Each structure stands twice: as C-alpha cells, then as structure tokens.
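<given_protein>
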Amino acid sequence: MKDAFRAIAKDKGIGEKEFAFKLGVHLMNVSHWGNQEKIDRHMPAYLVPEICRVMEDFRLLDRLEEAAGRTGVIFVPHSFQHAGFEDVKVVQSLIKEVGEALQTLANTLEDGLVEDHEYEATICELNDVIHECAKLKQWLKDRLEADRPKVAETTAPAKR
C-alpha cells in the first residue's frame, strides 16, 4: 500500500503538505504513510476512499480490495455529461490505457521471465484498463438514460 500511495502521489504531483491540507490530517501522518521504513505507521483504511477522491485516482482502493481478495470489483464514482466531445474522450481514454497495458505486458514477457517489479507494473496497467472499461460502462448507462427521452420523441406516434 505504501508503494501505491507514493506512486500515485508522484504521478499526480501532489506534495505531502498540499495533500495533508486537502485531506485534513497532520503532515506527519502523510509522511509516515508513504515511508517504507515506518512499518508501524499505516494509513487508516477508512481514509482510503477520501484519499482516492482527493488524489482523483482510485488505484489505492483497487490495491486495498486486491489485498482483501476482491479482485474484479471496480468502484467507479464518475458521472459524465453527455456531449459529443465527451463521447470521443471516454473511448480515447480506454484505447490509451489498453495500449499502455499491452506495452507493459510485452516488456514483462520480453525475456521470458516475470519478475516481481514487472508483475506489479503489469497488474497496475491491467487494473487501469479494467477501471477504464468500468468507466465506459457507466458512461454508456448515463448516455442511455440521457437519450431515452429523445428516442421516445422520435418513436412516439404523431399527434393529430
């Protein structure tokens, strides 16, 4: 969890001070959460959902669920506004994640051996693809709900 926490903070470019402020916790706690040497100081599990919201990244929650044996369970808190440009962005995001995952998988299998660090990187990328698929599924559901009134209008019998 500490590795995931540090990696996400680094990816998002969020400093410990800013993160502690956004989360409403003491800076020292955040410092301990990401420090491998502080094995006795872990982030409280009840804060993981809020940490994910603050970081706008749910890999930490995915990692927690994976540690609990709940693989394949996806939490998708996204809500999309239906717009033509957004349609393209949702699909492009999935395509990007699939490409990155396939490249990471190719790198992992290149020498015929799967090493610990390669496994972690590949699983992370595959989880990102699963997450993007779940977002796409939610987007499609939202799109269906937004389009139902339009469909009803076009299929309704004309009034005389």
